[in-house]
Design goal:
Blueprint: H1 2-6, H2 23-54, H3 57-110, H4 114-124, E1 131-136, H5 141-155, E2 160-165, E3 174-178, E4 181-184, H6 187-204
Parallel strand pairs: 1-2
Antiparallel strand pairs: 1-3, 3-4
Helix pairs in contact: 2-3, 3-6, 4-5
């Protein structure tokens, strides 16, 4: 097992890029800005309560730009936090999918018979399967051919079936051709679809 895993260069995966600023730093900035705004609002209220009688209206007016600037600064920091979180989520998804590809490769090296399950799932999704051609990786060809009689018996409805080698199909996956269209059950296609689903979910969040 260790020999198979050693064949994959996990270190080649691009690491997560460090965020522009740690979230803890952003929280500290928010705390300072919030405290400054509270002080400014307190001073403004005190000036309002005492200032009109003693001619401090100018002091109140001078606080307004400062309060506006503080409010905008807090909004900017929070927006940056959200942006950093989204970027980290995106990079985490990319890294997760890259790791999944490596793990799938290792698993198929240890359990090559898993391709039979992929073929079965693809065939179950086909309504008109009386005449089909199953394309698999050359290394999976004999495994699938040997399993085909059992699949035909358990699924039914398959009158004519050809299993052929196709180098463009990675190990563990398959493409099933029928008179009405193809079913792409390649491993890389499944991972791409998973990535699209997650990316769409992140876009809605």
């Amino acid at each position: 097992m260790s020999g198979l895993i050693a064949e994959f260069d996990f270190k080649a995966l691009e690491p997560l890029a460090p965020p522009r600023a740690p979230v803890s730093d952003a929280e500290a900035v928010l705390d300072v800005l919030a405290e400054a705004r509270e002080d400014a609002e307190r001073i403004r209220e005190e000036a309002r309560n005492e200032g009109y009688a003693s001619g401090r209206s100018d002091a109140i007016a001078s606080l307004e730009p400062a309060l506006a600037a503080l409010t905008q600064a807090i909004a900017d920091v929070r927006a940056q936090q959200a942006e950093m979180a989204t970027e980290l989520e995106r990079r985490a998804v990319e890294l997760g999918l890259a790791l999944s590809k490596k793990i799938v490769g290792v698993t198929l090296g240890l359990e090559p018979e898993k391709v039979v399950g992929a073929v079965e799932m693809a065939l179950r999704g086909i309504v008109e399967r009386d005449r089909i051609t199953v394309l698999v990786n050359p290394d999976d060809l004999e495994i699938v051919r040997e399993a085909m009689d059992g699949l035909r018996a358990s699924l039914g409805g398959i009158e004519h079936c050809i299993v052929e080698a196709e180098r463009r199909v990675a190990r563990g996956g398959c493409i099933v051709r029928t008179p009405v269209g193809d079913v792409d059950a390649r491993v890389e296609t499944k991972l791409e679809r998973a990535g699209e689903v997650v990316a769409a979910a992140l876009g809605r969040s």
